[in-house]
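Intended use. Records like the one below are meant for learning the mapping from a protein sequence to its folded structure. Do not use them to infer anything beyond what is encoded.
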Amino acid sequence: MTRDGELLVVDQSAPGIERIKARVANINVLCDAVHREILLLGRELSDCKWYGEYLLDPRWDDPKHKGKTRTWDHWLSGVRAFSLR
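Structure written out for the chain above:
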């Protein structure tokens, strides 16, 4: 077995049942890690918007953003160019 958050080594010479158990355990660890990252990202974005910190981003001072409305949408897509794939 493994400690929380650690991947198992999949030994190709092990019986098939042992390999699949290790792979399933690894898939669960990786899914949990992705889930935690998404939650952390959501928290950072939420706090940034809630407290209005995005309005203080120095990139607003860039000439191409001067005079534009400092909206959340513009900050995400224009100023910081964050995108989901």
